[in-house]
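Provenance and format

Records in this collection were gathered into a single text stream. Each protein contributes a sequence line and a token line. The two records reproduced below are adjacent in the stream.
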Amino acid sequence: MSHYHAVVWIDHREAKVFHFNATDVEKLVLHADRPTKQIHRKANSIGSGHVGADQEFLHAVAHSFADAGAVLIAGPADAKHELVTHIEKHDPALKKIIAGVETVDHPSDGQLVAFARKYFKAEDRMATK
């Protein structure tokens, strides 16, 4: 089956990528090799306390939906924005298929796909006008 749409839910540990149409869904789960840990800042320490994004992980996630016609990127924190920044810097051609970036906490797989279907249904309706 053909899947034009995709939705990605991403945090710093994993990404769930769903390619879907109205009746079918294919799921792929990617795990970061070096998941970042939350670092608490200490007084008089050097640096921001922020560990940089795992570029290899972000590249693998971007590659996983490169064949989609439109993708919705979702997640609870900064990883979704880091993915978009990675795409802009390393694979700008993919930027054109990003339909949106949404904050979504920790939905079940079914909830995420339902959210994406609803999002694209509204988005597709607006695009035809």
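Adjacent record:
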Amino acid sequence: MQIVDLTLNLYDGLKTFSSHPKFTLLDQVTFDFSAPRYELPCEGFESKLLIVSDHGGTHVDAPSHFIKGGKNIDEVALDKLIGSAVCIDVSDKAQDAVIDSRLLAEKCEAHNLEIREGDIVLLRSFPGSWGEGAFHQWQGINDDGAAWLQAKGIKALGMDLGVVDEVGNPHRPVHMRMLGAEILLIENLVNLDQVANSRFLFIGLPLNIKGATASPIRAVAIKDKESALQ
């Protein structure tokens, strides 16, 4: 069994989208501060304070992120984020080319990929490392592409970009379509080159945060799990 970590490393100062706050990691208790409370061999303890947006790092959007009255992250069924997954690699496209149904169909045919009802679909869009170069200007998927995937009956869509929608589109059609249909959206995935054009078991569970519109997740692909490849 091979486990591929698809999760962006969180570090102090990380900013994954322009409108979201930076991830902050602070000392809460240090060894020097806590040591007088204990006796050797215990030398005290350390703990950290985390300040993070519910959309920080690799995260999953709940319907309530864009749908008024939609489910919050603590109300989302966990089975939507565990299951058989396929990664479609479209990273050879131009920066300004959107991911539409034609491109998705072409890539699936070229690599003999089948999208099944109940699948989790991951899209590798960016050819470089997370955040480098024109990362934040790289085009995502458009409504036509999202509608094509929705018709296949998928339960979640993930991408290696900071936002799945087209850059500069204020209507956010993909968020509105998918979250409105309770198809969850995962953003800021990494290492998709290691699972490109293959089928695997995906696990990406959110924190159980009451009332949150999203949650950071630890996303992993289990490549050699027979149940995911059948």
